[in-house]
Specification:
Low-confidence stretches: none
Largest sheet: 6 strands, parallel
Mean pLDDT: 95
Shape: globular
Helix content: 25-40%
Bound molecules: adenosine monophosphate
Number of strands: 9
Structural class: alpha/beta
Order of helices and strands: EHEHEHEHHHHEHEHHEEE
């Protein structure tokens, strides 16, 4: 039976296991999106470690830290079903012991725009906790979902800049059959809100089609979609098309672009994105 472990047992257990370590950091409330990451790690690595830690430093003061779901038993069962070897469930003190004084900040457009503009300090919280977890688990490969496209870009940059000895493995977004991206926050949505949330995916696939047809122009397509979303029962934070490598906003359709959206539906903040390039790893209309 898989159980939650804490330091120093983490290092003791890891010392007993041999071969490349695959690591999937999560905040729990695991769904099929997380499970796809765990399954891929299982296929590719001798040892698979998942972590479950709801990291307070990546939440803003008025965000959903308190009500974030924490179904530990169900999460342990999901990890067991995916063949995870160790589930690391650190306490706040394990991650941020007294005296902890380091912050990791990836600067520039990778973290400044999009969610970075709406959630000040968020990516600093993410980079810091991920660096700390990497230091504790010492993985060879770490698996991140493209659902959180900007997070993936920030973590990839951090690993490269600090020359951390591991490979970041991007994994495609897992969706419901109707296109809704799986998220631990979807459980907050009422039926009506869920139907509204689906419009975000529709907007992204509309942009994908416009990208493929080359018309209307990027500016016109974005304006049209923003107007459409603003008429719905949601608060649009951003809808942008950016260059995948730099996250700089694009001013015309071109290769290697991603469309990203963030909106608050009811009391729930949702994000989604699709890769527009034809050779992108996922989601073609
Ligand atoms: P979270 O628990 O939200 O911090 O997510 C943990 C990891 O799971 C991150 O790398 C996310 O990008 C990834 N993830 C979350 N939702 C999905 C999804 N629908 N498809 C693929 N990966 C996901």
């Amino acid at each position: 039976m898989l159980r939650a472990i804490h330091p120093p047992e983490l290092r003791q257990q890891l010392a007993l296991l041999h071969g490349p370590v695959g690591f999937v950091p999560t905040m729990g409330a695991l769904h099929a999106g997380h499970r796809a990451l765990l399954a891929r790690a299982r296929r590719e690595c001798a040892v698979v470690v998942a972590s479950i830690f709801v990291n307070p430093t990546q939440f803003g003061p008025h965000e959903d830290l308190e009500r974030y779901p924490r179904p530990l038993e169900a999460d342990l069962a999901a990890c067991a079903a995916e063949g995870v070897d160790l589930v690391y469930t650190p306490t706040l003190e394990d991650v941020y012991p007294p005296g902890f004084a380091t912050r990791v900040r990836v600067e520039g457009p990778l973290s400044a725009g999009l969610c970075g503009a709406w959630r000040p300090g968020h990516f600093e919280g993410v980079a810091t906790v991920v660096a700390r977890l990497f230091g504790q688990v010492r993985p060879d490969r770490a698996y991140f979902g493209q659902k959180d496209f900007q997070q993936l870009a920030v973590v990839t940059r951090m690993v490269e800049d600090l020359q951390l000895p591991l490979t970041v493995v991007p994994c495609p977004t897992v969706r419901e059959p109707d296109g809704l991206a799986l998220s631990s926050r979807n459980r907050y949505l009422s039926d009506t809100e869920r139907a509204t949330a689906l419009e975000l995916h529709r907007t992204l696939t509309d942009l994908q089609r416009a990208w493929q047809a080359g018309m209307p122009s990027l500016g016109t397509a974005l304006e049209r979609e923003r107007e459409r979303l603003k008429r719905l029962e949601l608060t649009l934070q951003y809808l942008e098309v950016v260059q995948a490598a730099t996250l700089q906003p694009a001013d015309a359709w071109g290769p290697d672009q991603v469309a990203l959206v963030a909106a608050v539906v009811g009391a729930t903040r949702l994000i989604d994105n699709v890769r527009l390039s034809a050779d992108g790893p996922e989601e073609r209309p």
